[in-house]
Amino acid sequence: MSNPPPPPVDLPSTVVPAIGEVAIRQLVQRFYQRVQQDPVISVMYPPNDWAGAEERLADFLVFRFGGSEAYLAKRGSPRLRIRHAPFAITKTARDRWVELMLASLQEADLPEPTRGIMTEFLGQTATFLMNSTDET
Ligand code: HEM
After folding, report:
1. Based on the structure, what is the number of domains in the chain?
2. Residue 6 covered by a domain
3. pTM for this one?
4. Span 13-30, pLDDT tens digits
């Protein structure tokens, strides 16, 4: 008799167990340093709450990458499509967000396979959040 197949593994939830929560918080800190200097997407963010924005994204990623669930306690269900509805996320905005995140990820110099798992999750989620068309 053959064994039943193993249950599918949710790869994103292996990230924090592999690299720790601090690495995620450092990544988000580096990312927002870039965002603040970016002419395309900085204008979308609340100008007086960069620390809050950093905390919300970091808490979410820590939760989604298999760490503490503080995000859920503070913010409830993520509902990312709804929470991004106020912002025009065009392909240009999506690509810039991903570019700045991948530059931050590269700087963090994380080990594989974690880096690849994060790259895929972040890119796919950013695509899923697109909600506007670029003007032609
Ligand atoms: C595609 C390009 C994206 C743009 C332009 C964008 C823009 C924004 C903006 C302007 C905010 C409000 C900042 C604040 O919290 O005050 C925000 C919040 C947030 N974003 Fe994004 N975002 C993008 C992609 C993503 C992706 C890929 C993720 C997750 C992997 C993400 C996760 C979040 C979270 C968790 C919040 C806070 C939600 C809350 O209120 O609890 N975003 N984003």
Report:
1. 1
2. no
3. 0.95
4. 999 999 999 999 999 999
